[in-house]
Amino acid sequence: MKDSTLKQHIGYWLSRLQNTVSKSFEQRLHKHNVTVAEWCVVIAIFDKQADTVTGLSQYIEVTKPVVSRIIDQLVKKGLVKINPGINRRTSKIKLSPIAEELVPKLTAEANANDLAFFGCLNDLELTRLKDILNKLIVTGTNIMPSGWLTKGERKMVNKEQVLKIIKLAKEEAWPFPKTFDSLKEAGVVSYAVSWQNGKYHSQFNLADNSSLAGEKIASLEDIKIADEYLENKAKNALLTHQQGKTSFVEWVLEMANAGVASYLVKMSDRTVHYFSFDSSQSFVEVVPTFD
Q1: Model-level pTM greater than 0.90?
Q2: Which residues on adjacent β-strands are paired with residue 265?
Q3: CA gyration radius for the chain?
């Protein structure tokens, strides 16, 4: 029989890991003046999982008084509005426009935090971890599994959220890894961008097997693609853009001037494939994780 020392217990290490992951997430959310508890409520409302104190209490699995206190704080911060019902616990809670704009940023932070701690796991290891967690929760607790813990669950992708992420990424000049991770978290499995016909257009393929056309860019309506494909020139343009020295529009025009006519982003293997006009020549970029 093994000695019953502190650091031999699995629970000790799970507690240490949970505290570290949670503390890191708290620090990320603090930049947006949001707590972890407030984030849970905001995301639950945004995903249309619940919109009353009672519903949120059941979904998040905390008491109604706790949810009420969180709602009060969110009201003070201007992130939610309350439409009165028969009583406080049946009143409808709605996100404010400020909160709607904030959700993609919070999603990016949550995704970045997950990657910081679990990005070291490959797909097989991640699947095994989820299976183990599912087994432990189902057999050893009264917690009701949901989300990815429910095998075979297929959730509709929120297309408005995808469009907001795209918009924010361009307006705030997000680093591409942040944009990539945020789109992946929102349900994008791949997307293609092309200007082969001289006009910029994009299409996003989603996890629910639907697709979404990206918005047109007025300043990219007459793109001239060089006849010669120059891979080194394209890579230099990409590096310059990654360093923040060019805007998105400037980058697209520089890539076209290097003979690149399209690119394909694949979330599954974190790659971007850049193609010549006839797709006979290409190079691949591996997308780093966002820290």
Answers
A1: no
A2: 191, 272
A3: 22
